Amino acid sequence: MALCQKYNLPYKMQEFLFFILAIICVGAVLAMILTKNPAYSALWLVLAFLGIAGIFGLLDAPFIAAIQIIIYAGAIMVLFIFVIMMIDVRKGLSPEKKKWTLFLSGFLGLVLLFELITAATGVFSQLKTVGTENIGSPAGLGRLLFTDFLYPFEITSVLIIAALVGAIVLAKKKENE
Amino acid sequence: MIPTSYFIVLSALLFVLGIVAFFVKKDLITQFLSIEVMLNAGNLAFIAFAKAHGLIEGQIIVFFIITVAAAEAAVGLAIILLIYKQKKTIKSEDVNLMKG
């Protein structure tokens, strides 16, 4: 754990940080579910993404933590909040709600959580802490990105251009009508 | 260091919360937000396994996932705006053009 070794964090401290960040993530997602207003949901989700970025930092991935904050918590959520500002959310939503969907989805969630944990416990026993060396340096990531993963990287740029053109075409179409 | 199983359990919990949010919420925007939660849970699992195996390739996959999520958010939000312009609603139940 390069960052933690660099700042000489003891194990107890790392564990404490992990639990604080995990509680922030889960609590923020729960608050996102429980709030009625989509704008508040988006803001709670920003908090959850910040917590996940902190966990990425604990997991020796400082570059991914940085782009998590810059792209997810910054760019994507600002896009969401722009759209929420353009839409009249109070008119779009009606107050009626069905209780049974809540119970049914809660039941589905519990079953799925049990299933996921059961599937994952088979893997836990094989997971010794193999690599404790410094894996997450941005230099190594960039070098790999421009050598072994050069084609996916270039194809991603084509994908972004396609998404840009698609979004512009969709947004222009409504003005002609 | 912290055992990898903690991170995998947290990832599973976040994924399930995303699915529950998708079914509980009625408006398209919050359902789209819960898809982002599920993507992040997947990212967390990737990073945790990358750390456990000492391979940096998992982080590169997460890099691509975040890029694709940004593209997806742009197109999806444009579609949601179009739906709102045409039908004056963002409830997913009212969008039943295909009678599903």
Structure, described:
- The complex is a heterodimer of chains A (177) and B (100).
- By secondary structure, chain A is mainly alpha-helical.
- Chain A has a domain at 1-92: NADH-ubiquinone/plastoquinone oxidoreductase chain 6, subunit NuoJ (Four Helix Bundle (Hemerythrin (Met), subunit A), Up-down Bundle), CATH 1.20.120.1200.
- Chain A contains eight helices and no strands.
- In chain A, helix 3 packs antiparallel against helix 4.
- Chain B is an all-alpha fold.
- Chain B has one domain: Helix Hairpins (Orthogonal Bundle).
- Chain B is 78% helix and 0% strand.
Q: How many DSSP helices of chain B?
A: 3
Give the CATH level 1 class of the domain at 1-92 in chain A. Mainly Alpha
Give the distance, in angstroms, between the N- and C-terminal Cα atoms of chain A.
57 Å
Head-to-tail CA distance between termini of chain B: 49 Å
* Class by alpha and beta content of chain B: mainly alpha
| SS element count, helices of chain A | 8
Strand element count of chain B: 0
What general form of chain B does the structure show?
elongated
Unreliable stretches of chain A (pLDDT < 50, length at least 5) are none
**Average of per-residue pLDDT values of chain B:** 89
Order of helices and strands of chain B: HHH
* Order of helical and strand elements of chain A: HHHHHHHH
Give a quick summary of the entry.
With 177 residues, chain A is an all-alpha fold. Chain A has helices at 2-6, 11-34, 38-58, 62-86, 89-92, 99-124, 138-145, 150-176. Chain A contains eight helices and no strands.
